[in-house]
């Protein structure tokens, strides 16, 4: 690990105003410390935001069916919140299935959605070819590398690294909004517009400026008691998704009045299956309909020999998640 300066500002405004090139924010540090040890990230300055304004950004607030969550809320706190578990269980599910208890206690919601890929060619600096680490160097995964865990949706000829998180799939499905404090003051951004596809610049993973600070997430309609997050992985605990689905339903009898779908483990960004949703709305909640929607969701998949299984796995995961969600009370 390389030497760095350490700052701990008192307020969010101080953190943004005093931001300098080469700096990085951190709170729980559960991803940052790993990547610094691996020499993948080399910040000259770390800005500790964990205690900004004595907990001002650590909160869970309901107003009717709207939910607002502070970016410094620990994963465990949100996962264990009784109202969240009752009113929108897929948020709690996604956090419970995301990591070990120790990491959930340390990690904060804001940092969780910004975690970097687990692609081995990104995390191992002995590989020269990584367009995320060294723009323009190529992609070792695409150049004969091991690709079993890589993405099949949202890929490009520059990068096929999978977005690793779980919580973000629920946020994108729920039309969440990100509240940001930047050099020009506060602003809001659709969560769906936070992450960017790995096209010309795979190293640029979000639309945030370096000094931008996420302060909260808001969900206008978070009242989805019939919702869940299903995660399929190589082992039952502490593993990243091979395929996952965040699904939410509102039913009118056996007719789907509304549906939300976020897919994980299969895409380069948190993936909203909007065309599949459109195919389901107004139709019956049957396995045949769910299978048809899953075909639509994966119609644009691009695979390698090693990760082609993810298309069928992703479809089955989506169908199972929808079937289980439809059986819930709501």
Automatic annotation (TrEMBL):
Q: Which PROSITE patterns match?
A: FAD_PCMH
Where does the FAD-binding PCMH-type domain lie?
1-224
One GO MF term on file is: FAD binding
Keyword terms: FAD, Flavoprotein
- Name any one Pfam family assigned in the record: CO_deh_flav_C
Tell whether Signal is among the UniProt keywords: no
Tell me the superkingdom of the source. Bacteria
Q: What is this protein called?
A: Xanthine dehydrogenase family protein subunit M
Q: Which species is the source of this protein?
A: Qipengyuania atrilutea
């Amino acid at each position: 690990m390389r030497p760095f300066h350490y700052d701990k500002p008192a307020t969010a405004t101080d953190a943004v105003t005093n931001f300098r090139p080469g700096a990085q924010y951190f709170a729980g540090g559960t991803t940052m410390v790993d990547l610094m040890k691996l020499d993948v990230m080399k910040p000259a300055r770390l800005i500790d935001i964990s205690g900004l304004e004595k907990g001002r950004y650590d909160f869970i607030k309901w107003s009717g069916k709207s939910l607002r969550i502070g970016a410094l809320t620990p994963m465990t706190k949100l996962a264990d919140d009784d109202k969240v578990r009752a009113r929108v269980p897929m948020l709690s599910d996604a956090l419970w299935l995301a990591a070990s208890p120790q990491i959930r206690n340390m990690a904060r919601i804001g940092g969780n959605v910004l975690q970097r890929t687990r692609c081995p060619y990104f995390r191992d600096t002995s590989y020269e070819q990584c367009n995320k680490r060294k723009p323009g160097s190529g992609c070792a995964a695409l150049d004969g590398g091991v690709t079993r865990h890589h993405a099949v949706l949202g890929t490009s000829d520059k990068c096929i690294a999978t977005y690793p998180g779980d919580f973000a799939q629920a946020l994108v499905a729920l039309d969440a909004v990100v509240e940001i404090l930047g050099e020009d003051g506060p602003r809001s951004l659709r969560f769906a517009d936070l992450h960017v596809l790995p096209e010309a610049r795979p190293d640029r993973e979000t639309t945030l400026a370096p000094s931008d600070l996420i302060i909260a997430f808001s969900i206008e309609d978070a009242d989805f008691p019939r919702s869940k997050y299903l995660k399929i992985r190589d082992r039952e605990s502490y593993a990243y998704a091979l395929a996952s689905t965040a699904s939410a339903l509102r039913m009118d009898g056996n007719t789907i009045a509304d549906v939300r779908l976020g897919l994980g483990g299969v895409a380069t960004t948190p993936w909203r299956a909007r065309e599949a949703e459109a195919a389901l709305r107004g139709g019956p909640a049957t396995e045949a309909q769910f299978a048809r929607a899953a075909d639509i969701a994966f119609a644009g998949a691009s695979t390698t020999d090693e990760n082609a299984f993810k298309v069928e796995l992703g479809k089955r995961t989506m169908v199972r998640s929808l079937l289980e969600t439809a059986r819930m009370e709501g």
